[in-house]
């Protein structure tokens, strides 16, 4: 299968291709049923290619028309490109971290990886047209954390191949963001993620920024798998967008490098927070309706399927809760993505994401929303970090909880936990 064929079959373009070939002398063979992985990989590829192929040539800013929310707060619109690249590459990194293969999918990954490496080069080169906005607005701290999180997720594919100059520039830019004083919200984790990255690459890191973030998350844990984003609880999806994935991965780096500071005990805290995330995953799975829709609650709704990042991370780590079989989670995640991305207006004619929830709905944007922000939806694809032969992809599909419940089938009861 050629690369173009892979794209078309994976994102629903095969029908269009077939129509264009209708005049051929021989009738086309019936298309093979599309599997969940082909759909998910094709959709992530569709999001990634326009961004990375252009940025690899230093042409992202020239080709990416900025769209902002109707209630945009007036900050420099150049934050858009940092948000676009940082968020996209974070969700894409697990897929790119897989070993090279000569399959159609493997060839796509290889080309995206090469483009990602070149994009990193442009991102920190002051002479490049695609040099990102590292100064100015504090928003850079947010998206630098996704930028560094990707390097933590796929170091062999994206950090190690970088030239010495680019590595030094990345470290310099990341350290420069210590100038930003994060508010006492999920932003503390952005500062901590950058420090975890610096620890990983052997640079001086600030353990106090990490220690504070972890302590605050413990202070804000409200129980039954939920963490408040600050002193007061908000019923939204920030536990999924930021809090659980970043906290878990920061702790993983601390454990791997045996980092110690004050009474910080990452080896004890990591399994505890993983259990809490697993409980939160049980809630997320129960949010998925029989048709793949889910509650449109809270701020940042336009982040789309990033809502399900913890489920993807748990799957990638082979740590799904016992109550959630792999085939059940995979079926639910596939249904969610199909429900959200079935409307073509999720993308522009040039293939870039638009502001919206299940289509182009700019009025849903928040005061900080631009079309670059939307690329955080890539975080909903973390399970692609598992190879296609993994049981997550090969296990028979199973109905998820709500699908069972509304079909009058047996499904497990649900009780709160006290850890």
Short description:
This protein is an all-alpha fold and 419 residues long. It has helices spanning 3-10, 14-20, 36-55, 60-63, 79-96, 104-123, 139-153, 155-159, 164-176, 187-200, 207-220, 238-256, 266-287, 309-316, 326-341, 391-394, 401-405; strands at residues 221-223, 226-227.
Global Rg: 21 Å
DSSP, total strands: 2
What is the class in the CATH system? Mainly Alpha
The SSE string, one letter per element, is HHHHHHHHHHHEEHHHHHH
- Broad shape: globular
Structural class: mainly alpha
What's the layout of helices and strands?
Elements: H1 3-10, H2 14-20, H3 36-55, H4 60-63, H5 79-96, H6 104-123, H7 139-153, H8 155-159, H9 164-176, H10 187-200, H11 207-220, E1 221-223, E2 226-227, H12 238-256, H13 266-287, H14 309-316, H15 326-341, H16 391-394, H17 401-405
